[in-house]
Amino acid sequence: MNSTLKKYLPLLVVAIAAFLGAEQFGLSDNSSADRATSRPSAPSTRSGNDADAAIAKAYRAKAHDVRVRGEGRVSAVLQDDTRGSRHQRFILRLASGNTVLVAHNIDLAPRIPSLRKGDTVGFNGIYEYNERGGVVHWTHRDPGGRHAGGWLEHAGQRYQ
Length: 160
What we know:
Blueprint: H1 3-24, H2 32-35, H3 50-60, E1 64-77, E2 87-93, E3 99-105, E4 120-128, E5 135-137, E6 151-154, E7 157-159
Parallel strand pairs: 3-5
Antiparallel strand pairs: 1-2, 1-4, 2-3, 4-5, 4-6, 6-7
Protein name: DUF3465 domain-containing protein
InterPro entries: DUF3465 (IPR021856)
Signal peptide: 1-22
């Protein structure tokens, strides 16, 4: 083995391991493993509703503070985030197959009672980029008046 190969072999091994790990854990862009899990997925450009297109565009641009409105099916109900303001959290699968985390402030708006996997939820809020597909928040009124009021809709009831 020549000295150049010996020098770069450890880096090559790490790069291959990182690539294979990303595929295995659904961290690559929209792999089938990613769509099969409840982990939020990076939005693709596949067809879907207007919110899907807006979220996919915002994800590609690593954008923040983007108003989005749409609907999705609950793929996972997560534990509430109780650090600071309390948030009801769940993952929505959009029509495109992509997923997004919804963080709904339950100190400012009512929680959705008895939310279950498979339920349909409409949303109007602010999209924030993250590597896993992003977060929709500000799904409630803004007491500081910085954002237009957002909301969630579930079973004919609006929560804002």
